[in-house]
Specification:
This protein has helices at about 5-30, 45-60, 75-85, 105-110, 125-130, 140-150, 170-180, 195-200, 245-250, 265-280; strands at about 5, 35-40, 65-70, 95, 160-165, 185-190, 205, 225-230, 230-235, 240, 255. It has 2 domains: about 30-115, 3-Layer(aba) Sandwich (Rossmann fold); about 140-265, Rossmann fold, CATH 3.40.50. It contains 10 helices and 11 strands. With about 280 residues, the protein is of the alpha/beta class. The protein binds NADPH dihydro-nicotinamide-adenine-dinucleotide phosphate.
Length: about 280
């Protein structure tokens, strides 16, 4: 059976380090990192995510401010709030919880955030900096995956990495991060022909498709490191990833569980980006 990569433990270690660094920043410069989270509408999952982010902030000694708006809020109102937060010296990170209601253009909202405060790493400037090898804020889930690989001392350089999924928030930025660390990267999607043939090449296989247990044992090379980003709720309520954990766990060298793998790392990296922003803006 593969080594199970314990994202809950690594996330806790990262948060402990962040709490210590935040204390030092307060002692040395009198600065408390501040995160503003903007939530529009009443999507229940978004409310849960935002509550978790706030709790995580408070636990590491950050200031956390929440801005909740009804679903019919106009885009212009959001842009006004963002403009205020951009110049608010107590706030170092601004996060707009996605998805936004249909009538609001997410690109306009993200583009309005000061790139230095864009702790989600979604602003085109931050994406461009990642692309050109000079990253500032990097998207949280992909950087959480790198952190997991590093803390388990998994070599990336020269290895064959295959990512299933090409979204702007996971697949694409992860491809760039792995490329920067000298992996040979292949990105798959719904038009990829003969997916199992491609995934079987992977020494590092990342599933980020949002398709329950689609990566089966026959799609995985023996000894591969398998990272499961997927979060899927089955009709009975059970939470599963994109990887058939038991089958794949028999063949892989390392595997992340769902829950308790990549998920907890995303919030830890959000805190890390906020601390980075606070240091940079101080
Ligand atoms: P998107 O829906 O934006 O993207 C999914 C990608 O997977 C697309 O590129 C799609 O291809 C591809 N894909 C879907 N099904 C298949 C298939 N059968 N074969 C090959 N490719 C496929 O999803 P996200 O990137 O936002 O999220 C992916 C998963 O990760 C979701 O389950 C989400 O809940 C989870 N997630 C977890 C996070 C965490 O913190 N753990 C954070 C973010 C996401 P195409 O482009 O051709 O449509």
């Amino acid at each position: 059976m593969a080594v199970i990569i314990d994202g809950t433990k690594v996330s806790q270690d990262v948060r402990d380090e962040i709490r210590k660094e935040a204390l030092r920043l307060k002692a040395d410069a009198g600065v408390v990192p501040g995160l503003a989270v903007i939530l529009v509408g009443d999507d229940p999952a978004s409310h849960i995510y935002v509550a978790r982010k706030e709790k995580a902030c408070t636990e590491v000694g950050f200031l956390s401010r929440e801005y909740k708006f009804p679903g019919d809020t106009r885009e212009a109102q959001l842009l006004d709030i963002i403009a205020e937060l951009n110049v608010d010296t107590a706030i170092h990170g601004i996060l707009v919880q996605l998805p936004l209601p249909q009538h609001i253009n997410p690109d306009s909202v993200i583009n309005a955030i000061d790139p230095k405060k864009d702790v989600d790493g979604f602003h085109p400037l931050n994406v461009g900096r990642l692309l050109t090898g000079n990253p500032f804020h990097t998207s949280c889930t992909p950087s959480g995956i790198l952190e997991l690989l590093d803390r388990y001392e998994i070599d990336i350089r020269g290895r064959e990495a295959v990512i299933v999924g090409r979204s702007n928030i996971v697949g694409k930025p992860l491809a760039l991060l792995l490329l920067a660390r000298h992996a040979t990267v292949t990105v798959c999607h719904t038009r990829t022909r003969n997916l199992p043939e491609v995934t079987r090449r992977a020494e590092i296989l990342v599933a980020a498709a949002g398709s329950p247990e689609m990566i089966t044992g026959d799609m995985v090379r023996g000894g591969a490191v398998v990272i499961d980003v997927g979060i899927n709720r089955l009709p009975g309520g059970k939470l599963v990833g994109d990887v058939a954990f038991d089958q794949v766990g028999e063949k892989a060298s390392h595997i992340t569980p769902v829950p308790g793998g990549v998920g907890p790392m995303t919030i830890a990296m959000l805190l890390k980006n906020t601390l980075h922003a606070a240091n940079d803006l101080t």
